[in-house]
Amino acid sequence: MSLEVIDAQRVKALLPMQECIDVMARAMAAASNAEVTVPPRTFVPIDGQGSVFALMPAVASTLEGYGAKLLSLTPANAAQGLPIIRGEFLLFERRTGAPVAVMDAASLTAIRTAAASGLATRLLARPDARSCGIFGTGVQAETHLEAMCAVRPVERIHVWGRNFQKAAAWAERQAELTGRRVTASQDPAEVAACDLICTVTAAREPILQGAWVRPGTHVNLVGSHTLTTREADSALIARSKVYVDLMESMRNEAGDLMIPIEEGAVRPDHVRGEIGRVVTGELAGRTGSDEITLYKSLGIAAQDLYAAWHVYRKTQARRI
User: Fold this and answer.
1) 165-178 residue pLDDT tens
2) Is residue 167 domain-shared with residue 225, that is, in the same domain?
């Protein structure tokens, strides 16, 4: 059996956002139903500059394949204009244990992360949400804009970044690509005054304040993934109905939630539960138009595995 090599361009072509959102629904339901084994992520330091090698495996009883994402994170690359994250997803066939595909992990991650937020937005946001505020101007800002537009009739987009010139350039480029009204703002409170909010930054301290967020908003917190960092303040968490991808991941990595819990701003049971339970109907989503709903995304290997298997199966179907 030959090894299928799938580059970034093919991943993007085979994993359109709308399809990936449906794939994420299956992945998150499977994860919440304990149909996926997801060991803790392994990070091995490379040097004293923050570079690490990361391994993220997953095995699903519902799929005919299993695999792992292997990544290098090299912060020093930013100064050279090179990608900080590079890697591949290696997929194996369950029946024989043979490796069947290796595919670009950066594009896979960019799409599935935004698709997971798209799923949460589809389940939790008001149906009439028409404005979207994005904090951040990187790859995830672009894919999250696509995901929000895939699940809600978004007409107006505001973006904020620490570098206003970069944010303005991003807004101009996205306006051309999407045909929608996209504007950059130097005032983060203005960006937060939207029906949908996505934070996709590398912030270590809150850049989104609860006082800025209007009743009825849906928020996707995506950028922070350690117990000591967060993008939102405790006031926002206290005001929101909170959902996560996995409770275990929340306890191990979600500073956005664990810091407010440790402060006593909210109780541990303030977190309603996993988004997969909303998919299966075991957990209620939004129950009122004035509620603030919030999805804390950390990203789990189940999402990578289901997305990778979907891409691989499509390559095989097209070959046949």
Assistant:
1) 999 999 999 999 99
2) yes
